[in-house]
Amino acid sequence: MADSPSFRRHPLASSVDLVRWLPSSAASPFERLLAAAIYDPSSGPAASSIRLLPLSDPTSPLASLPLPSRATALRCSPSTLAAATSSGSLHLLPSSFNSDAAAAVPGGAAFHVGPVRGLDFGGEEWVTAGEDGRVHVVGGGGDGRLVARRVWDGKGMSGYEAARWASPAEFATGGAGCGVQWWDRRKGDGVAVQCNGIWGRGIVTGMVHSIDIHSSRKHICVVGGSSGTIFAWDLRWPQQPIPLSGVGLNGTAEPVCESEVWEVHFDTYTQSSDIISSASSKILPVMMCSEDGILAVVKQDERPLELLAEACAINSFDIDPQNPSDVVCALEWESIGVLTRDRDTLVEE
Amino acid sequence: MPGMPTDGGGAIVPFRGEPGQGAPSPPPLRPIRHGVAPPIFRVYINWSSGNLLQVACLRPPNSEGCGGVEVAGSVVEVNLGSGGNGGAEVEEEIDEAEMRRIEYGSVPAFALLQSRKNALADAAAMSRMSSVPDYAEWWQYVLEYSKTIGNLLGNPDSPPAFMIEDPKTILKVREKPTSLRAAWELLEIFYVDKQLQSWLPERLVDWLADFDSLLSATESTVYSKLSNFQKKLINLQIVEDDPDYWNGLSAALSVGWLDIVVNMLRFHGSYQLDQMDNRETENGLVEAVAVLVSTMPRLRPNLPTGKLGQCCKTRPDFVKAWEKWRGQVTKLECSAFWIQCGHQKTRDGLKNLLHIMMGNIKELTASTSHWLELFASHFLYIRPFTVGFEGMHHLAQKCIQLKPSSSTTGLTGLVIGVLSENPEVVLAECTKHFGPWLVTHAMELLTADNDYADTMLHEERPNLGGISIEELHRLVYAQVLCSHSLTWQIAPTYLSSCLNQGLGLLEILLLKQPIQDNRLVLKTLEICRLYELDNISTNIMKVAGIYHWKHGRKGVGVYWFQQAHDKVRLDRIAQQLFEHIGKSVADDSFKQWEGLLELLGSDIGSAGGLEFLHRYRDFKRSLHQALDGRSGEAARQTVDFLIQLMRNPSTPQRFWLPLLHDSMELLNCKPSPLMNVAETNLLLNKLQELSLAKLRPDFSNNHLPSHALGSVRLALASNLARAILEDP
User: Fold this and answer.
1) Using the beta-carbon criterion (under 8 Å), do B595 and A157 form an inter-chain contact?
2) What span, in angstroms and rounded, lies between the C-alpha atoms of A53 and B554?
3) Which domain of life is it from (chain B) (predicted)?
4) Total-model pTM
């Protein structure tokens, strides 16, 4: 291996819960921007906010949007930045970051009660899934207002922690103990397919923290959750999830980590070592971050490639969609890290 | 309630001064905006994390006038931490976020050192012989630790990037030094760095060069002299006419800032091209002094770039160079050229510099301001071979007498404590001025190679509750970390290094963490996993389960109970759920339970009493299919489920009749019997048990038609008859 991938930490002096790359827009053609969900308990009522940070100097924010409570989900669409909070509200902000144009759906009985951890943009609408067991689809009402439509009310019987669109009509959710669900809106409201997942350490059920679906293979979800578990769920064989990593799971190499896997994303930068087979059946490489400070790329039936092993938890990360060699991650110790991968370092052996 | 307002601010707390005190000082009042209209019925006060106090104000239940609109109670958080708390001087220079950055950064270094210490102790226990080489290894580890932490505190040598330096700058613009770093470096110089021990005086000179600005805020120091002159410099036409120029030069020279002296000498007017001709001798003298200054021998292995002097690594080399250099200085001092130097101030000033270089005590005393500066000048010009703490301490006492300082900062106290070889004083100064972070981490430096400090700090003391001083300070620091919602996660590292009371406090810390947020619970559980505190994690899961259950998130509640393997509570929950399910579940309303049933997973063993629900769901589904399709396969399966349910002891009795009633249609419509004799007998027995139970007063009625029992019995009997006929 050549030089280790270069990694820089930027202390932000307040807790960073989530971090995302913003798509470069006309407003900022030269500057690459990050959005971070900040929580600073010392600043009283303005404790939670979304901040817009330039990559060149992430410690000096360009703009800030206050939130009513701690952010629990953060996503970008090409034109909008969306954040959901632990009090059940949803906030949409145009990527120009003009806070006058921000729109919000307040939390409460009419929307979500409690944290909304599942949030994703499906091309037309946003889906939100909360720990209260409700699933909503939020879209523009035509007159600039936001309209939230309830798809499902689990009445607390199940709680959702993640949501991801596969196509404009289908999305996947996951949560505490309930595994992964596939929703197909053409087949009416309600779960179309259900998978309990496979969990390590002999437990029958775990908590799903993150789901990703690759844009070119919409029938495969990759799921990260409790006890270092990462598995893929192929809708064509819904009863046979494919283990990628986990403690004590048969048929996998040693687990990449043993603690909570907070986030998973398909890694478009790392190529499968076997391109021919990857075109057919293998799961594409997946990047994950964990509570014990691991950032790694996991490949099916291969040794994981560890990119970072931090002393503190990595709570969130994002791969720059326009420049997938760059990864930004939110570190527990009040800082963000920017990792720049070199093409050479990925060619192992 | 003497003297307390009861109606004005709504405060209802009675306060009485300590008995025996003449006039108790009025208690500090904090108005709280709780927004609850009086009358307030009950107030609960509870410590939250850190300085936060949670105050809950409740109105009496069902009080008239509420109207259901007003709030019945509210919880407010009161921050008691605001305002100066007479803390360490560190807090003034380093803001909270910066301090947290240091706290985070020092965790890995501390943990690594502790694990190395344990590994060495284990190795020593294994083979009792090879403890001497281990010890040599040990201080290398401590030095590495010290350097890592030192880097965290800022690097005074690093200039800010992209600075265009003005040639007229005297003091380089650098990162502002902090007294925390100064203290750390001082301890490192004296206690850890064995390699550089013989160059200790020069290291002190370097230390002073970095941190001179911190010695006193009010009194004059060499640094303040130079920075004042710097401000003046822009407006000066003829530099050498200004007495501050020469004062600054002698001050800088006396503490060994040779590069600054040489740079300042070049400001001299005689270097200007238009004056070169008529001030030739004067310029020659200035230049000669500059050359002498820049070639001063120094007893040290190397010099950082930009610093002047010639390095001598060994004493003989140094003595040789020193004598030669002193000879040159004396020769210049006696030179005849001085008579030709027309500029009086230049002549006096340069001569003064030469006297300083010759070690003239009077000049040195005059040109330095603080006793530490005088102390350093002694090492440079009078006693370059000073070694040993005793000699240094003696010298320091003399310097303090010559230059008494009215204000003592933590740093000077620390220097005296170190020189007097008194670890207790060092510890006290650190505690008083630099806060718990420094004390906890500097403890490793103090004990690195000091047996006395080692015993003093590690001895278990009955008056401290059986813990050592080291543990006491670690516990204090851990408490500071615990009190902040962002730093509590690093406290376990320190608590786990405390053998006596650490684990107990760690358990309390973990149990006190908020459980509202699942992610935070998972973070707490991760710490439990690392320290193998299984019973604590089970407790946390149970508490989280109850919280979510009570707040209507039944699924998440059941999830946590399952994780905790809490059979008792799962059974209780099952009972509650049965109440909801009622007599017979229609398929639509059953859909609502689907999510919860999925949650229970396939391994129903872990679900406790909820196991029944799962089987019941399967039975219902199968029955539906059987009645729809009327296929023999589905009917047979339904009956299997029914038998399983009826056999299972966890099936509540009140479901027996509805179950049988539901399947009655199936029993009746089939031409051939679905159950054999034994199975039918089992059901009949259950039915009999049920009709007996019906007579008991606690029997719960199922809202089934009154003839249900009879019709089920009939169906079973006819099935039995057919089964007997079919039985071979």
Assistant:
1) yes
2) 39
3) Eukaryota
4) 0.83
